[in-house]
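Design request, tokens follow.
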């Protein structure tokens, strides 16, 4: 075929495509648009109000110090590292809690100085008094942690930094 015939055929194809496109546009515009105008939002649920009885619970509550309850001497036990599991749950399905007893002092000022030195080195520490009136002792703890290996790593670091002999202690429920 010659090039002029090819050009005529291409022109005819383009004209036909344009005519068909125009026809479909004209037909779709002439038809009425059927838009579904029904709502698809469900009806609101029927919820009845419930009356809650209010009690004065503040009258029964005694203020407690959670750290005193958690770290009372009756709830702490020293465990050998080779006998203890490194992590896990207690019988009440709560995680085991480990603290590091860094030291003890006979007066609050010495304990607070040790506490500040530990915190300045980036350790999360706290002081817990024994609560005995005749011979008051202040224990300095780091923790709590739920992994024995982590608290043992802290023990190594603290013993080296402060030339101390700390003890790993577990809270027993």
């Amino acid at each position: 075929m010659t090039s002029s015939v090819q050009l005529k055929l291409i022109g005819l194809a383009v004209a036909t495509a344009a005519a068909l496109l125009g026809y479909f546009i004209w037909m779709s515009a002439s038809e009425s648009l059927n838009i579904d105008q029904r709502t698809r939002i469900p009806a609101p649920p029927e919820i009845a109000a419930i009356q809650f009885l209010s009690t004065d619970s503040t009258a029964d509550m005694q203020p407690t110090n959670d750290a005193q309850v958690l770290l009372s001497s009756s709830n702490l036990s020293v465990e050998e590292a080779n006998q203890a599991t490194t992590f896990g749950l207690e019988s009440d399905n709560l995680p085991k809690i480990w603290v590091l007893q860094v030291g003890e002092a006979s007066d609050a000022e010495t304990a607070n100085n040790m506490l500040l030195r530990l915190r300045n080195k980036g350790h999360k520490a706290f002081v817990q008094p024994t609560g005995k009136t005749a011979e008051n002792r202040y224990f300095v703890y780091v923790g709590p942690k739920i992994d024995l290996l982590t608290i043992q790593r802290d023990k190594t670091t603290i013993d080296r930094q402060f030339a101390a002999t700390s003890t790993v202690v577990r809270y027993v429920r």
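Comment from the thread starter after seeing the answer: thanks! The CA atoms of residues 149 and 155 lie 10 Å apart.
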